[in-house]
């Protein structure tokens, strides 16, 4: 009798009761717009920014409407202009090159290594060859590069780094949280991230000009003094009137749903980590499965699990996936000819000029990915692993 997982892996984590209560209270008050002319007292978005800045250990925070908007605004506030080159690791999700395209800037794609993170030597080579002054460092699927080495390269070459921390809320490298290595960090609270508000984004930074510019561009009108994690008026005086209003601010309702989730981060990440490592250990026992290495310096916060099926061709991998999907475990595959769901590779982003990425293509061509919903029990995690192992045996005579 074959194992079958009876749990939908696409199930997001529902916000806690406190989020529901805060949302209802706000709905009843009618003050859903964060800049209602009521001052900063009780302003959910302003309080969220203050609390999130403290959580990250950064001075300033700007709440916006999505992770993609957070990246766009952080890059724009850092000075990226049309035609500028922006370095970006080749393993990331479509909204990340999309944010660069939104600025009419040009992504310069950097190879990844078998650990699924940016390759430092290719970063240096591409930075030198292109003259790019910006790096958008995407910690895709929660894999954190050697950030000391990356920060040192940026420092050496005068590159400004913006981190995409959509998958690394609370993750650290050598004890330092992601979002603290560059000029700014961008986060997402879209449903499949550590926090679930449906849509939402946050920018953190210690740079007062970047913070003021991002606040003005996010669409604060002249109500920016309501912000609580923002630089002083003198900094805004340098920029107001000069920044376009892009209306990307976060709604007070989203902030009200998010605030009660902040104290849950450590416990959620611990549960995710335990679930990930439990499944990883079982999968690793199969001779054809290999997982990317995780160095001791990386404290990771996995909301999904990545692995390679070694020595199999594309058709064989797809046969395994078909079988495991039929048994309740939809494995996502980055090596497909056409993008599916959330998975895509550089050749699928047709608006980006084609760039040779032989190493990344070889790696992503074998990469499998499983979403890990927080609600999965230990027994269900074991069934998940068993389904994958049985599908491998079934599909391969
Ligand atoms: C790696 C990565 N960066 C950025 C984003 C953008 O976040 P959002 O969907 O909130 O725009 C996502 C979304 O899933 C993502 O996976």
Concise account of the structure shown:
The chain contains 13 helices and 14 strands. The structure holds pyridoxal-5'-phosphate.
Report how far the terminal alpha carbons are from each other.
18 Å
Q: What's the rounded overall pLDDT mean?
A: 96
Based on the structure given, which CATH architecture of the largest domain is correct? 3-Layer(aba) Sandwich
| Global geometry | globular
Would you give an account of this structure?
By secondary structure, the protein is an alpha/beta fold. It is 38% helix and 14% strand. The chain has two domains: 17-263, 3-Layer(aba) Sandwich (Aspartate Aminotransferase, domain 2), CATH 3.40.640; 264-395, Alpha-Beta Complex (Aspartate Aminotransferase, domain 1), CATH 3.90.1150. The strands form three sheets. A seven-stranded mixed beta sheet has the order 1-9-8-5-4-2-3, sandwiched between helices. Strands 10-12-14-13 form a four-stranded antiparallel beta sheet. Helix 7 crosses helix 8 (233-239). It starts with 16 loop residues before the first helix and ends with a helix. The structure holds pyridoxal-5'-phosphate. Pyridoxal-5'-phosphate binds next to helix 3 and helix 4. Pyridoxal-5'-phosphate is lined by residues 66-68, 92-93, 95-96, 138, 140, 164, 166-167, 188, 190, 201.
């Amino acid at each position: 009798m074959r194992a079958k997982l009876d749990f939908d892996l696409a199930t997001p984590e529902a916000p806690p009761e406190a989020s529901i209560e805060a949302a209802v209270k706000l709905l009843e008050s009618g003050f859903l717009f964060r800049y209602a002319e009521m001052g900063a007292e009780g302003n959910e978005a302003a309080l969220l920014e203050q609390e999130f800045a403290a959580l990250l250990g950064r001075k300033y925070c700007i709440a916006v409407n999505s992770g993609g908007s957070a990246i766009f605004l952080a890059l724009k506030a850092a000075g990226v202009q049309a035609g500028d080159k922006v370095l970006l690791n080749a393993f990331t999700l479509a909204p990340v090159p999309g944010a660069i395209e939104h600025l009419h800037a040009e992504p310069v794609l950097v190879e990844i290594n078998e650990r699924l993170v940016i390759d430092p030597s290719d970063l240096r080579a591409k930075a030198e060859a292109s003259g790019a002054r910006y790096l958008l460092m995407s910690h895709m699927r929660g894999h954190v590069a050697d950030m000391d080495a990356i920060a040192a390269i940026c420092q050496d070459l005068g590159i400004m780094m913006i981190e995409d921390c959509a998958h690394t809320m609370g993750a650290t490298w050598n004890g330092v949280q992601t979002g603290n290595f560059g000029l700014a960090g961008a986060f997402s609270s879209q449903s499949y991230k550590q926090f679930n508000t449906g849509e939402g984004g946050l920018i953190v930074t210690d740079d007062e000009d970047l913070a003021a510019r991002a606040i003005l561009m996010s669409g604060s009108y002249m109500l920016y003094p309501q912000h609580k994690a923002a630089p002083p008026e003198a900094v805004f005086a340098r920029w107001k009137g000069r920044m376009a209003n892009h209306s990307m601010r976060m709604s007070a309702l989203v902030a009200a749903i998010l605030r009660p989730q902040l104290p849950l981060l450590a416990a959620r990440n611990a549960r995710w980590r335990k679930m990930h490592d439990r499944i990883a250990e079982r999968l690793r026992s199969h001779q054809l499965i290999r997982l990317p290495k995780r160095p001791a310096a990386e404290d990771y916060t996995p909301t999904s699990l990545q692995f390679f099926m070694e020595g199999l061709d594309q058709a064989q991998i797809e046969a395994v996936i078909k079988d495991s999907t039929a048994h309740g475990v939809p494995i996502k595959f980055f090596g497909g000819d056409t993008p599916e769901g959330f998975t895509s590779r550089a050749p699928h982003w047709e608006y980006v000029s084609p760039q040779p990425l032989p190493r990344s293509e070889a790696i992503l061509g074998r990469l499998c990915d499983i979403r890990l919903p927080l609600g999965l029990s230990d027994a269900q995690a074991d069934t998940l692993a068993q389904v994958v192992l049985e599908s491998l045996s079934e599909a391969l005579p």
